Each structure stands twice: as C-alpha cells, then as structure tokens.
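Standup notes
- DV: blocked on the single-chain target, sequence here:
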Amino acid sequence: MSLEIRIIPHKLDFKFNARTSRGAMQQHQVYYLVITDLAAPETIGIGECAPLPGLSIEYSTDFYLRLQKVVQDLNKHLKQDGISYLKSAVNSAELKSFPAVKFALETATLDLEHGGKKRIFTNAFSVGESGIPINGLIWMGDKSFMQDQIRQKLQDGYTCLKLKIGGLDFATELEIIKSIRQVAAANDLIIRLDANGAFTPEEALDKLEKLSSFQIHSIEQPIKQGQWAAMQYLCQHSPIPVALDEELINILEKEEKEQILQHIKPPFIILKPTLLGGFQACSEWITLADKAGTEWWITSALESNIGLNAISQFTAEYSVTMEQGLGTGQLYHNNISSPLKIEKGKLFYQENQFWDNSLFK
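- DV (later): unblocked, structure below
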C-alpha cells in the first residue's frame, strides 16, 4: 500500500474563554494528519495532533515546523513501504518524545485500515449499540459562571460532575461545592475535583480535610507533579482518594510507569492519549495499573470530535462502568460535525448520522 500524509492545521474557537491553570484560552490549535492511500485516494485516515501549551512535552512555538519535518521524513518511506513502515515508525525512538503525533498517527492508521469511516475500533459503542458514562465538566470561572454550568449539567441529567478548582479563593470554592450538595446528595451525584496542582504540599492535607465533608469521589493532581515523596504522603493520608494526572506526563518507559505506581501507590490514574503517547501507551498503563490495584479512567484533552471519537472508541474496548472524562466535544463553536451525542450523562455514537468531511477534501 502506497501512502502519503498531509497536515491540515485548524483553530478551534471556544464558546467561552476557557479558564485553566494555564490561563484563559480562546482558541486551541490542532493539526489533522490525513493519510491517503494513493491507489484509492478517496479513502483517507484522519488523526488529530493537538499538543497543549504548558502540558504536552512536544509543545513549542515552532511545533508546526517540527511536525512538518516529521511528516516529510515519514513520506520519504511511505510511498514504497506503506503501512508496515508507518506502524514501525510510530513505535520508533524518534517519535517517543512526540506523544500527540503518535496518537494522531495511530488513529489515522487504524481509520485507514478500517476503510476511512472514522471506525477506529469496532465495539458496542462505535456501532451505536451502547453509550459510555461520562462526567459533566465544570470549567473554572467566577462564582456565577461556575454555578450556571452546574445548574445546566444537573438539568441535562448528569450524575457525575467534575469541577476544576484552584482558580478562585478557597472559601468561595467551598461555598460552590456546598451549594451543589444542598441540591444533590452523594447518593444522587458524584463530585470529582481537579486541582491541576493548585495546592502546595504544606497546605494540601488541610484543604483536603475541609473538602472531604462534601463526600468527594476523588481529586486529581492536588499538588504539582514531580514531588513524589509529597504525593506519596498525600495518597496515604488524604481523606479524599487522589488521582494522578499531570504526574504521568513524560513517564515514557515501562519501568518508569511501574516505579511511579509502586512508589506513590495512587488510588486512581487519569489517562489522556494525546499527552501520554496514544493507544499503545495507555494500554500499557492500564495493564500495569490493574496489576498494581490502581483504578483508572480515560479523559480527552480538549481535542476536537476527531480525537474525541478515537479516544471514546478506544475507551469502549474496555468494560468501563465508572464515568469517563469524554465530555469536551461541546466546547467549540467550530467543531467537526459528527455522530457523537451526549444524552443524560452518556456519550453515544449515532451510526445513522454523518461526519462533516469538508475540511479534509
């Protein structure tokens, strides 16, 4: 099979200024990698490469130039060696430090192999037979903005909310969480928190004690990554189960993954294919986590519906019952129209709906 890769840059526009631990975001730059079978040019595989500023290890101001160089090097071999070369290249040492690129190439390759129909994996989700339970994501903002989001998510039928905290003063955040619990008890609504490393090691345990009175399911990354001793202590003593998120970024080797699980002993880990290096990398994390007795869930990382679709189909390869973090497809004005649909806290793939492929022609 003779192949060629091209890059399509695309800026996604947020419906609101997404306030995160890295500041306000109005747009998110993504790059679609489109693989064409030169013998059948109407068949294409599409993957999304969307490194995040301040998080992705390959992100830089000259990332597009570096991505172009990667694609140029791949294209030198793909016309002759095709898909076999592409699969070996994805696992090469040269791409180890390009996790978002690996995720895009894996997705595009699987899409092409399955006929270019956005069918990355074949399972009950991707054929429209069942949905995936997801949490409703509440973005940082002022108190009224966050409360508006919470009211809407509850009206939409979510039974699990994830709140990003650390952007307001702590007393206000406690008030917001208390107001949720006044409306919905722990038996009716799961609350997850994501601190994005906002707490210092010295204050973290005291804050976690105060938060625990509201029956919190878990808290992601209470302190900044790289502080293994402090994180290990928190995992042992926190009244709220701790989930590692940013802590996993740049942990690339199997031995390192085993070490962090054995040393910190987290109750949960959060898996983001764009940040961790794609499906194979996440599968390795899952195998090691299961062995270590650590629970996990999978989360998208601001991808468009192209990336979200791939991550969701990958998630459905596992027998998940816990809510996954796959609700970010509604964030953009100009997302790629897709068969993905959220209904009563579940993500569905509607097989009778169509993708908008106009950007990729």
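- Follow-up: Residues 63 and 289 are 32 Å apart (CA to CA).
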